[in-house]
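ingest -> validate -> predict -> emit
validate: passed (alphabet ok, no gaps, 141 aa)
predict: started
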Amino acid sequence: MIPILEPLGEFDAIVPVPLHPARLRKRGYNQSGLLAAEIGRQLQVPVMPVLVRTRDTVSQVTLSREDRQTNLSGAFGLDPGWAPAPGTRFLMIDDVRTTGATLNACAKELVRTGPRQVTVATLALDLPRRELGAWLAEHGR
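emit:
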């Protein structure tokens, strides 16, 4: 078990946040997919890349919270040939959480399948300086 994930419980499937195929070709790898593969190997849980990017979006780096949500509207879907078992426990993996817009958009797609739970884990958290103190106070660090 990866110690930091222990409090999150057990999972039936690990789902990486997808890149659009054009961005994947340009970059050559999906960082969330690489993270998911290693976590899946260590937890002995299958990685299921069932989320798909249905349209390319502009880079989120310079967008406001509201613009990020608009940018991602309708940008994700599920692999049409896939149907999970009822009550599946998903662990969704992304590299960085900034506003949570990407994670929320992806989680909405997984929730449509009737899971028992959708848990999200990211490698990094990007917070503006003004929010960092509040986050640290809330999370006891």
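Helices lie at 21-27, 31-43, 65-72, 101-111, 129-138.
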